[in-house]
Amino acid sequence: MSDGEPLVRWDWIGDHVGELAHYTGVHLQLGLLPVLFGLIISVPLGMLCHRWRWLYPPTLTVANVLYSIPSLALFMIFVRYTGLTEQTVMIPLTLYTLSVLVPNVVDGLASVPEPVRQAATAMGFTAVRRVVQVELPIAVPVVVAGVRVAAVSSISLVAVGQLIGQGGLGYYITRGLQLDFPTPIVTATVLIMLLALVTDAVLVLAQRLLTPWAQDRGKTA
Amino acid sequence: MNDFLSQVRLVADWLTSSQQWQGAEGIPQRLLEHLTYSGLSLLFAALIGLSLGLLVGHTGRGAFAVASVANLARSIPTFGLVVLVVTVVGLSTTPVLIALIALAVPPILINTFEGVRGVDPDARDAARGMGMTGWEVLLRVEVPMALPLILLGLRVAAIQVVATATVAAYPGLGGLGRFIVDGLARNDYELVIGGSAVVVVLALVVQVVFTALRRVIVSPGLRASAARS
Q1: B58-70: average pLDDT
Q2: Cα separation values, A70 from A158, B33, B214, Å
Q3: What is the residue-averaged pLDDT of chain B?
Q4: Which of A96, B15, B42, B105 has minimal Cβ neighbours within 10 Å of its Cβ?
């Protein structure tokens, strides 16, 4: 960086509002769709692990091993199959969410009090209806706690995808380095943090709406 | 499936060719750089995170601040942080270490804190009742009981540091990420996938080391309750 160059040139941000908004949208999509896919996989998987406990340790080990693979390496492995596309970023991010979401679904289901389960059975709920209408709603706070962690880390990881040309706001990070110009890097980094924090706040709000009965108990982790 | 096998063969060819194993651009040199970045930053992060976490957990003061800082820190895109530090401070090892330490402190801090906080108050009271001093309670009751969570924090931090040290190659530093970044720039897929394979193996080794560590140093009485993590 040349001497006297400020960390942020506000006029640059002013000139790029439209473009920044576009990349912000792309970034959100790349970061949040994997969480959605992760949830679609984790809920049934967590239910299976809850039903058959022996499934849980191996599932968790696989999820943890996947999580420990650095994102850059995992992106590269998928480049071979899906090319330099959005899928190449979203598939690894989806896999990463499993190490948080699966345990939280299992813990959430385990947090259902036994008397509640028995009451539901006594009222004539079939096993499937009991899970869908009684157990899953009670598990929501714990599951949402996992979704929050997954969403925040997913959003901040998207930027690395820029190394294969799909990084949302990460575009400005590489661009800033090439131009030796810190403003885009600072802007993108701050925007990504804001996206993560706003998403987190929205999820807290969503949980309040989904579980009105838990209003004052504050059961989120 | 055929494609998968050819990919495996590509990696095997690359790994076994002798030029990968010598010189300043060989695997041993890059691995050493990678381990130096990761090890040093993890060491400093552990010093900061453990002492702060134990302090806050033991005294119960500043809990809200710790939780807020950890939440905020999790949202920092590490790629942006590393590139920013290099752009502002210049290309050398120190700024990367700073970025990696900033990344590794929060998981260690929050898990240490949660671990100590979560110790059964009865056990703490019993220790005091037996006449233990504050330090003895901390070192002989709280730390051993918090160990599963403390190790989880260290493991998460180690995995993140090893992964992010890969990204440090992008702004021009060494480490195993060099293979991936250079391979991409030269359109040399063999280099990219070979480098990725080495990084994956290193990450798995870290995972195994921490799993083994937990077996060895966590008290057997606590292991059942520590099964999840």
Answers
A1: 81
A2: 13, 17, 22
A3: 83
A4: B15
Domain B27-223 = CATH 3.40.50.1980: no
* Two tokens, residue B151: 């190790």
| Superfamily (CATH H level) for A23-210 | MetI-like (1.10.3720.10)
CB B112 within 8 A of CB B53: yes
> Residue A192 and residue B80: Cβ atoms within 8 Å?
yes
Interface residue of A56, A72, A84, A88 to substitute, partner B, most B CBs within 10 Å: A72
Query: In the structure, how many helices (H) and strands (E) does chain B have?
Result: 11, 0
Q: Which residue has the higher pLDDT, B140 or A119?
A: A119
Q: Where are the domains of chain B?
A: 27-223
Task: Say if A36 is an interface residue toward chain B (CB within 8 Å).
Answer: no
| Average pLDDT for chain A | 89
Q: What is the pLDDT of residue A158?
A: 93
CB < 8 Å to B31, chain A: none
pLDDT tens track for A129-177: 898 889 988 898 889 989 998 999 899 899 989 988 888 999 999 999 8
- Domain locations in chain A as residue ranges: 23-210
Asked whether this complex has an ipTM greater than 0.85, the answer is no
The pTM score is: 0.82
pLDDT at residue B187 above 60?
Answer: yes
Q: How far is B126 from chain A (nearest CA, A)?
A: 27
Phi, psi (degrees; rounded to nearest 5) at B176: -70, -25
- How many Cβ atoms sit within 10 Å of the Cβ of residue B175? 27
Interface contact B200-A69, CB threshold 8 A:
yes
A189 touches chain B (CB under 8 A): yes
Residue A183 to residue A192: CA distance in whole angstroms? 14
- Which chain B positions have a beta carbon within 8 Å of A177's beta carbon? 83, 86-87, 170-171
A79–B192 C-beta distance less than 8 A: yes
